[in-house]
Amino acid sequence: MNTVTRAHLTETIYTQVGLSRNESADLLEVVLARMAAALEAGESVKISGFGTFSVRQKGRRIGRNPKTGVEVPILPRRVLVFRPSQVLRAHVNHMAPPVGGDDE
Amino acid sequence: MTKSELIAELAAANPHLLSRDVETIVATIFNEITGALARGERVELRGFGAFTIKKRDARTGRNPRTGAAVPVDEKVVPFFKAGKELRDRVNRGKKD
User: Fold this and answer.
1) Around Cβ A63, how many Cβ atoms within 10 Å?
2) Which of B33, B50, B72, B80 is least surrounded by Cβ atoms within 10 Å, i.e. has the fewest?
3) Is the CB of residue B55 less than 8 Å from the CB of residue A43?
4) Mutant choice from B16, B20, B24, B28 vs A, greatest count of A C-beta within 10 A
5) ipTM score here?
6) B residues 23-62 near A, CB within 8 Å?
7) What are the tens digits of pLDDT across the range A4-50?
8) Could you say which DSSP state residue A85 is in?
9) Does the beta-carbon distance from B43 to A19 stay under 8 Å?
10) pTM higher than 0.95 for the full model?
């Protein structure tokens, strides 16, 4: 399966916006860094037409090592969840986006 | 943070760019990811995470109100898995 990487995204920014490749790469990095910083601060990141990244608090629970059956405590932690928008869901299924467009 | 706030921050930090260009950059990034997923490809951004699609088989669902059986077609859903670095940062977090 083909994998799209930073290099591909940089190339697309370069051709679409006409900045240098270096600056295109830098801006992509800044976008990702800003999103990461917001999430680190516990803030949600809502990208209309794409989806919402949010941080969910998980409580302490008892897990089990599946191999040995030994009980181990799983400490409270924060996890990142991504909820795709209806528009993105429609795109990946090659369907027309829902009327009203967005669920953000 | 919303997409428009992200664009506004980037524009403020990069006064040499037209805000129209900043909008195009942000739109291009998410459009490219969307396009890749629609082509069945994965998008891997080291340190941040990976976007993939997952296939869901057709199943018989139920209308929760009436209990009537409804066929649910096979479909594909977008999925994001946070990269190790981002996962650790979110978990450590800045406790308020």
Assistant:
1) 10
2) B72
3) no
4) B28
5) 0.88
6) 24-26, 28-30, 32-34, 36-49, 53
7) 999 999 999 999 988 999 999 999 999 999 999 999 999 999 999 99
8) -
9) no
10) no
